[in-house]
Amino acid sequence: EVQLVDSGGGLVQPGGSLRLSCAASGFTFSDHQMNWVRQAPGEGLEWVSSISRSGDTMYYADSVKGRFSIFRDNAKNSLYLQMNSLRAEDTAVYYCAGSPWYAYWGQGTLVTVSS
Amino acid sequence: DVVMTQSPLSLPVTLGQPASISCRSSQSLVHSDGSTYLHWFQQRPGQSPRRLIYKVSNRDSGVPDRFSGSGSGTDFTLKISRVEAEDLGVYYCMQGTHWPPYTFGQGTKLEIK
Fold first, then answer.
1. Contact of B102 with B94, CB cutoff 8 Å
2. Which site among A27, A38, A43, A45 would you substitute to test the B interface, given the most B Cβ atoms closer than 10 Å to its Cβ?
3. What percentage of chain A reaches a pLDDT higher than 90?
4. pLDDT in tens, A20-70
5. CA B55: distance to chain centroid?
6. Which one has a higher pLDDT value, B113 or B78?
7. To the nearest whole angstrom, how far is the Cα of B37 from the nearest Cα of chain A?
8. Which of B7, B47, B81, B87 is deepest in the core (most CB within 10 A)?
9. Of A58, A100, A101, whose CA–CA distance to A79 is shortest?
10. C-alpha triplet B19, B24, B26: angle, nearest 5°
11. How much is the CA Rg of chain A, to the nearest whole Å?
12. Chain B residue with minimal CA distance to A106?
């Protein structure tokens, strides 16, 4: 059974940092592009970032470019999102999602940016 | 960026009746490889999104056959032949042809009339 388990969320002050993790199992992790998608409270889905199978190519939404970094460890079947310079508007549930074509989703982890 | 526009944004339905959601893109979603990367997701209250349909019309494993997807180019539709109580939630279309960025529609909330 495919499973994605998101973790690492919490309350952080504006300007602070947080690292999210996503542990994958039940499929060949290294065969798939991986992604982060977020959902602000009461809002829709917003793509945040994607990373290639090997981890050598990364893509970011303009809203997070320069502040967030996506990376993966294929040996550990894990995906990460390093979030720096956090802002109030980054408050959201963050989901990792696995390709092909966002077939698999984690349960999400809540990030709250507030003083 | 490709803008995805869903309608309606709210869809009150009677159980057992059909429902239809439209999704339009600001440009054609036909990829140079010939495929159309338009997918549909369901998000039930308090749950993660779940993919229902991939590449316009392919139903995911375990998705009831009352769900169907159709369309081409810039115009796509998700249909539910007979709405059941478990279908309540928010539905999103998403394009994966012209990325980055991947873009989602605003979401359509399916609720009981």
1. yes
2. A45
3. 97
4. 999 999 999 999 999 999 999 999 999 999 999 999 999 999 999 999 999
5. 11
6. B78
7. 8
8. B87
9. A58
10. 170
11. 13
12. B48
